[in-house]
Specification:
The chain is α/β, with parallel strands linked by helices. It is built from 6 helices and 8 strands. It has a 6-stranded mixed beta sheet, sandwiched between helices. The longest helix has 13 residues, at 42-54. The structure holds zinc ion.
Length: 191
């Protein structure tokens, strides 16, 4: 899947909005991504999953692991395409851990998959949690990388499309300086 086709699918489903936004972090950005919207249709999710899986056909991936909640749908589809097992990590008292009886074995080859990499924090924490259990984390992947390829997650990483859309402190936001009102997408009514 070409990067342009990925972005086009995001635009069509309203998963990529352009304007002046307040992100959950409180930072301002000209791009807002809501991956859940582009993954609403299983056929689309499956296509993204196959595209990511193509990069790892010869990597002998045994397990795909994703940080909850954002990574679960796409991670599951990547695992399906690779014929691999799928597990997820989740946050408990601030730490990213395996719960629900999920376990990994020493040397198990794992691919970590997320929907969007912004700073790479969730992916990096998942990589670290799995390595601490003795697994071999081969690589990481996401549908979108919005860090301009700058995020470092501690293992090699690919994305289907890369955007360079900095999130900035409101104090230094160019759009704020121009007096343009910022929108919080979750609270906006759309038709
Ligand atoms: Zn702003």
């Amino acid at each position: 899947m070409q990067a342009e086709a990925v972005i086009e699918k995001f635009r069509k489903t309203g998963a990529l909005l352009e304007g002046h936004f307040v992100l959950t972090s409180g930072l301002h950005s000209q791009v807002y991504l809501q991956c859940a919207l582009v993954l609403q249709r299983p056929n689309d999710a499956e296509e993204f999953g196959r595209s990511i899986a193509q990069h790892f056909q010869t990597a002998n991936i045994q397990t795909v692991a994703s940080p909850a909640i954002g990574g679960i749908v796409i991670g599951y589809e990547v695992a399906r395409a690779l014929g691999a097992r799928f597990i997820w990590t989740e946050r408990q008292e601030g730490a990213m851990i395996l719960r629900r009886g999920f376990s990994v074995s020493a040397g198990e080859k794992i691919l970590v998959v997320e929907d969007v990499v912004t700073t790479g924090g969730s992916t990096r924490e998942t990589v670290t949690a799995l390595q601490a259990k003795g697994a071999e984390v081969v690589a990481a992947a996401s549908i979108i990388d919005r860090s301009g390829a700058k995020a470092d997650v501690g293992v090699p990483r690919i994305a289907l499309a890369t955007l360079d859309v900095p999130a900035v402190d409101p104090a230094v936001c160019e759009l704020c300086k121009r007096g343009e009102p910022a929108v919080k997408p979750g609270s906006r009514k759309t038709i």
